[in-house]
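Dear colleague,

Thank you for sharing your sequence with our group. We've completed the structure prediction you requested, and as agreed, I am returning the results in plain text so they can be pasted directly into your records. Please verify that the sequence below matches your submission; if there's any discrepancy, let me know and we will rerun it promptly.
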Amino acid sequence: MPLGLGYNEGGWKCMQRDIEVKLLRALVAVVDEGGFSRAAQALHVTQPTVTQQIQRLESVVQAPLIERTNRRLKLTSEGRELVAHARRVLLLNSEVLGTLSALRGQQFLSLGCSPHFADGFQAMLAESASRRPRLRVEVTTGLSAALAEKLEREELEAAILLGVRTGRCEMLGRLRLAWYGNAPLAPDASYPVALVGERSALSMRIVETLAEHNVRWRSAPWSTDPLTVRAAVRAGLAYTALPACAHLGHPSLPVPPAGALGPEPEPLPVYLAFSPSIRESAVEAARDAARATLQALPLDPP
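Please find the predicted structure tokens below.
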């Protein structure tokens, strides 16, 4: 659009002129209806109003848009160019209003979740779509300690945490664990064990269990990412502890001989934690999402 000049205390500067959507709508109506009178009827205004709107539009663009003759309405070259742009603007305007209107009727839940519960996402999303069709769940995965920090910073509204307690949370149960792996012993007869990071409650439980039963082990330096840890176990390169049902969803996970690494680690508590300022309407949605996510896991009562 053309620019004008204005003066202020800093001197002359360029000023951007804006076109009101209703002026563009008036121009398109004049073209589509074939005249000012019919355009006024379509827009439910008076004919002088439409005439004034076209004059204002011509003032803004600083160019005539309609040739003033007694013959059939005819656009100038500037008018034809502006009509093409006006149609796109009106379409975009309708799309924006429609999208915002849909968003007003939609609910949101930002949910964090330990990757050890990722197998339950499909059931959770399917149930959410069925029971709460207007709810949009945005899931963030990560180690529970990191998710707890996101809750404190209010970057998440709720999170399903493994072994990590927060100021506002409720215990959902205790997750039973089992050993997985079938890797050869090292020359010093120690077991290669893959852990998922220093801040992982599961890793700490694994280390505590091995130490308690005097099992010789060494850290297998594969990755702190849980998916990579599982891949190392499936490849026969390491052992680790996972939910006791993990092999049901992932048949390639090898189960070690009974007692190879000693007793199974003690169950870990699972918490549904909330941000300090979570909306009350989101609390029940988070509980439903957590229940659906965990329904297939071996959880003992709290």
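Summary note from our side: The chain has ten helices and twelve strands.

Kind regards,
the structure core
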